[in-house]
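Hello,

Our lab assistant flagged a job as stuck in the queue for most of the afternoon. It eventually completed. Since we weren't sure the result was trustworthy after the delay, we are filing this so someone can double-check. Below is the sequence as submitted and the structure that was eventually returned. Let us know if re-running is recommended.
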Amino acid sequence: MHRKDLLDKINNYSPEDNDEQLFRANFLEFISNNKNCFERSLLKGHITGSAWIVNQTYDKALLTHHRKLDKWLQLGGHADGETDIIKVAKKEAKEESGLSNLRLLSEDIFDIDIHTIPERKGIPEHLHYDVRFLFQAVDHVPLLINHESKALKWVPLKELNQLIEGNRSIMRMVEKTAIYQQ
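-- returned structure --
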């Protein structure tokens, strides 16, 4: 996947709500205007890849308690020059969870989000243009927590809202999971 491939995927993506419609337009403009959009060195923002990981029965999602942001989030991270965002999402999910049994459920984009990352250690506040893909994994194998996480947890989807404190971005993926499994 290259910049054109990601543009094509986002062009073909069907937003679920007004937020995603705006995100889609902003993604297209950002990628078109920034050849180095996959590089962390682009300080105004950059492309990231995430894995929304559900269990075999689609009733739990794997979340990480992110050490730097101190929030429960889906697994994922920086592209660091890699243009295949599915590869980024899978690599980051494996590194952050120790799971080797990840199964990509669709090569289509599952969700998109643009969120602000606060200034930290001399890196200015910037945007993450996050492309998310749907994965599945067995929820009874041991998880390995790496240095980026305080904790990892399979969370029942019906209990997730309390843990994520109403994070609309994650709740949108919960809603999409219910539709996907039908």
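-- support follow-up --
The delay was a queue issue, not a problem with the job. The result is valid. The mean pLDDT is 94. The first strand starts at residue 45 and ends at 54.
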